[in-house]
Amino acid sequence: MIARWLVGLLLPALAAAQDSIPPVHHPHKHHHAAVSPRDSAVRDSVLRARWSAIAAVPVPAAALLPAHRIVAFYGNPISKRMGVLGAYPVDTMLAHLDEKVAEWQSADSTKKVIPALHLIAVVAQAGPGSDGKYRARMPDSLVERVYSWAARRNALLFLDIQPGKSTVEAELPRLAPFLARPNVHLAIDPEFAMTKGGLPGKRIGTIDAADVNYAIKFLAGLAGDSLPPKILIVHRFRKPMLTHSDSIVLDPKVQVVIDMDGFGTPAVKAGSYQKYVFSWPVQFTGWKQFFRQDVPHTAITDILKLTPVPVYIQYQ
Questions:
Q1: pLDDT tens for each residue of 81-108
Q2: Whose CA is closest to 287, among 308, 264, 314, 254?
């Protein structure tokens, strides 16, 4: 059972962790020359060619992607507001997960759908905490509990880091014993990485390709020659959340997914996917659906029309 002090520490920041800022399009202060339809078409063609080249790169036989699609439920059992993972009793939550997996399997029979639970294992905080890092590390007992839930569905487990004023490098070693398991993978949420100052929930954070590269090397070291490739999810709904993405160095032992994380109408979300995922090719792509904030929800059939087609789907 989680100690009362930990629950008290978490409560002030849970709303911030749940209610990610949507991809609002602000008016520009300066006028820029409009991009001609011809230039736009040329750029689109170049990007599609880059994505095709990425798709043509062979992956290890034991890799989950792109042969499979992962459908994950996100959140933290401590709070109902942080996502579906903690919004219902476990049996009800897993039944809902079964339904979503079945929906995706029915919509696209070309890829086997794998269920997953996506736990926020390092939660950004509104207050500094005892070490001034503005984040709370979930106890191992909580991670083990969610791991046991995943085992009930033969599902994957993703451990999500919201660094606050800590760093990806500082948070990874404590999670290593879990990440060394073949069915446990990693996610990083730049929204709550306050590397440029500010406080979690008050401004949008950022990470650099150097942080992603560090995580890739860390995971590759854990995978070694005995584990199937690890998966690394990086959330993104604005360009500055991930800087120098063209400097990300891929490794066959780690599969990198850039997950379009913003909420909004289908048109807004599709636009964000185009601007912040399609326009900055890395390796694989993901899409997040918000049960509460997405009104209306983007239809699965429309998500399957995106280029590239997402192989990681997350529900919050």
A1: 999 999 999 999 999 999 999 999 999 9
A2: 314
